[in-house]
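Feature request disguised as a bug: please show the residue count (159) next to Phosphopantetheine adenylyltransferase in the output. Example input:
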Amino acid sequence: MKTAVYPGSFDPVTNGHLDIIHRGAQVCERLIVAVLHNSQKNPLFTVEERKDFIRQETKDLANVEVDSFDGLLAHYVNQVKADAIIRGLRAISDFEYELKFASMMRELAPDVETLFMMTKNEYSFLSSGIVKEVAQHNGDIHRLVSPRVYKAIMKKYGY
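Example output, currently without the count:
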């Protein structure tokens, strides 16, 4: 596989995301981590901040690029000529949504495969939303995100 896209909001990027990025980079020649700009959401971090976090945390991976997009993922993967999309699965509850997502992608971009990667057990509960909720109440998130992201989250919440 030449080019794969790992899309997400990454608000913030967690250790679970980073695990998928590292493993995804091993199975393709080029991995594009594509940060979604969703104007309907009120993110904690800007798209540029999220891209910078990912760049800093993956600078040792020569085949990883960080980009952003808005609109349909199908249009983006066609634009960058991707062969595949990588999606992380945490639990069986993710599968129903991801199956629908993959089916729609097959309809919109039939030449692009969707590959599912299971998270490591230690990250099976982890999501950006959970990280933000715990951090908002000054809970301990230092094992869930990188030290750089941890400091930025604590600063955003005034701790």
